[in-house]
Amino acid sequence: MIEDNSSDSGGVLRGTYHVCPSEAALHAARKLFPRKRDLMEIRRHALKLSHWPDTPPSVNSGQALDLDWEWVKGLPKNVTDVGELRIDDQIGGFNNLRIIFYKAAPPFGWPKNMMWILDVFQKKRQDFSVADLARFKAVRHGVITGYYAVR
């Protein structure tokens, strides 16, 4: 929950999506940002995904509050729901940071749609490597089997 002190919003901002990090994303963020202050700043940016804009599926990029996003290119044709959130701020001495997310339906019993954080890293080149794409796909698969598989 993000606190907002403005009087017109009732004190709390509530998005239409629930944002949840994967274990892989938590590990990557803790490794990249050993200071808690930097972790909280990257968390603040990731929580902006809870206010995902209602865009048609044909739109390939846009903005989530004040951050740019784009769907990840290079994944198989059946994986169309993995995107990157671009952070231009310098956090913990790193710039050009990316939050990789998976836009999903709510798991059984959850009231909101989900935004799963798959990875956090500093992007050093324009495109994603084959290893990056394989990692995104594997973590997405882990989220699906861990939270959406019939038990």
Question: What labels describe this entry?
Answer:
two-stranded antiparallel ribbon, 151 residues, globular, 6-stranded mixed sheet, disordered N terminus, YaeB-like fold, alpha+beta
Q: Would you mind describing this structure in some detail?
A:
The strands form two sheets. The chain has a six-stranded mixed β-sheet. It has a two-stranded antiparallel sheet with strand order 1-2. 26% of the residues lie in helices and 28% in strands. The protein has helices spanning 23-32, 36-46, 130-147, and strands spanning 2-3, 12-13, 17-21, 61-64, 67-71, 82-87, 97-104, 113-122. 27% of the residues are buried. A hairpin with an 8-residue loop joins strand 1 and strand 2 (12-13). The radius of gyration is 15 Å and the shape is globular. It has one domain: 2-Layer Sandwich (YaeB-like fold), CATH 3.30.2310.20. The protein contains three helices and eight strands. The model is unreliable at 1-11 (pLDDT under 50). The longest helix is centred in the last third of the chain and has 18 residues, at 130-147. It is an alpha+beta fold and 151 residues long.
